[in-house]
Amino acid sequence: MSVEKYIKVSVLGATGMVGQNCLRLLENHPWFKVVDVAASERSSGKTYKDSVEGKWHMETDIPHDVSTLIVRDVHDFDSIPDDVTCVFSALDLDEKEETRNFEFGYAEKGYAVISTSSANRQTDDVPMIIPEINADHTNVIPIQQQNRDLPSSGFVAVKPNCSIQSYIVVLEALKQAGFPIDRAQVTTLQALSGAGYKALSNPDLQENVIPFIGGEEEKTEKEPLKIFGKVTSEGIIQSTDLIVNAVCTRVPVVDGHTAVVHIGFSDKVPSIDEFKSILSSFSAEPQSMNLPSAPNPPILVLDDIDRPQPRLDRDSGKGMAVTVGRIAKDTFFDIRFIGLSHNTVRGASGGAILVAELLVEKGFIS
Ligand code: NAP
């Protein structure tokens, strides 16, 4: 794509953990160029570099083109540059209702909004997409535009919670191979960065395990049902084929969510060798479309007894692959495994960028 053909994007919540990662991943992106950054009133009016002074958490430098942009207040719709067509939203507002209305406020103005927030995840006419699983849920976008009288370029699409990314693609691979599951018991060990940049310096979270994350178990249990659901003229109808039970904990790991998963199959049970081979050979639409951020392969199976580990495995596939290990027969369920994914990459900004790439490829963003 030539320079003038770049799709110009804005990043909302650009000063936060997910926003920073989004800027990092969009630097040198072949299709998207960041021309606008926005955050709260606290950060607005400063250069991006000044607004993140002392709280830039990426290992790479602030992208050069972004460092001198003046941070816009997200509530200021008027000074968004004219050439922006797509908005990545990584906001963490106090009220879900405010975030929901806010995202549709941008869609009403004709922007394609790709959000990492949970506010619109359970909205029936908003697709919640993991491109390897439910790329067809983009079909709900015209219904959303019609329901809400949005301009033809405006819509909201979201990516799901970071806690489910470490295992749900495994369930899809098994389903596609003819081994659907009907129950899963999931215990997550979630990294500090999942709670935003302030969590990294919160002393209560150091050398500790917090056995509760507000709202996380509900999201981990409900979101897979929407992702495995079907698009109808009414919106997305949730799947009733599966029950997920979840326990979510916060652990003193900087990046990388681990999930210990026990699954039961609705019909036949694969052997362990079949299970491994199904996961290793899994490939889906993002891989066949050759999307720039699609990991190939999307799932890596490790045989080492002590893997996956966040520090060693979270960056697999540039942080976009899911790593799976400890696959074994289970006494109470059929099979268990441990999955790992990078929460701020695959689980947030990278996942959102992959959704945007899919939407470009399908003609929803141009
Ligand atoms: P974060 O580090 O706390 O960053 C929050 C961002 O929102 C900052 O840019 C902040 O701007 C802005 N903001 C906060 N209050 C605001 C307000 N009242 N008005 C306007 N802007 C406001 O949070 P995060 O971890 O990046 O998460 C961002 C979103 O992604 C959240 O919805 C979160 O649930 C979701 N998410 C996070 C992860 C993860 O692993 N961290 C994974 C999946 C999804 P200032 O810097 O100016 O305050």
Explained architecture:
- The protein contains twelve helices and 14 strands.
- The protein is an alpha/beta fold and 366 residues long.
- α1 (17-26) crosses α12.
- The radius of gyration is 20 Å and the shape is globular.
- 27% of the residues lie in helices and 22% in strands.
- It has two domains: 7-162 and 349-361, NAD(P)-binding Rossmann-like Domain (Rossmann fold, 3-Layer(aba) Sandwich), CATH 3.40.50; 165-342, Dihydrodipicolinate Reductase, domain 2, CATH 3.30.360.
- A six-stranded parallel beta sheet has the order 3-2-1-4-5-6, sandwiched between helices. A six-stranded mixed beta sheet has the order 10-7-11-14-13-12. A two-stranded antiparallel ribbon has the order 8-9.
- α1 (17-26) links the parallel β1 and β2.
- It binds NADP nicotinamide-adenine-dinucleotide phosphate.
- Residues 13-19, 39-40, 42-43, 74, 90-93, 116-118, 162, 193-194, 196-197, 343-344, 347-348 line the site of NADP nicotinamide-adenine-dinucleotide phosphate.
- NADP nicotinamide-adenine-dinucleotide phosphate binds next to α1 and α12.
Short synopsis of the structure:
By secondary structure, the protein is α/β, with parallel strands linked by helices. The protein has helices at 17-26, 48-51, 64-67, 96-108, 131-134, 141-147, 168-176, 216-227, 272-281, 285-288, 310-313, 345-361, and strands at 7-12, 32-39, 72-73, 84-89, 112-115, 155-158, 181-190, 230-232, 235-237, 243-250, 257-265, 299-301, 322-329, 335-341. The chain has two domains: 7-162 and 349-361, NAD(P)-binding Rossmann-like Domain (Rossmann fold, 3-Layer(aba) Sandwich), CATH 3.40.50.720; 165-342, Dihydrodipicolinate Reductase, domain 2, CATH 3.30.360.10.
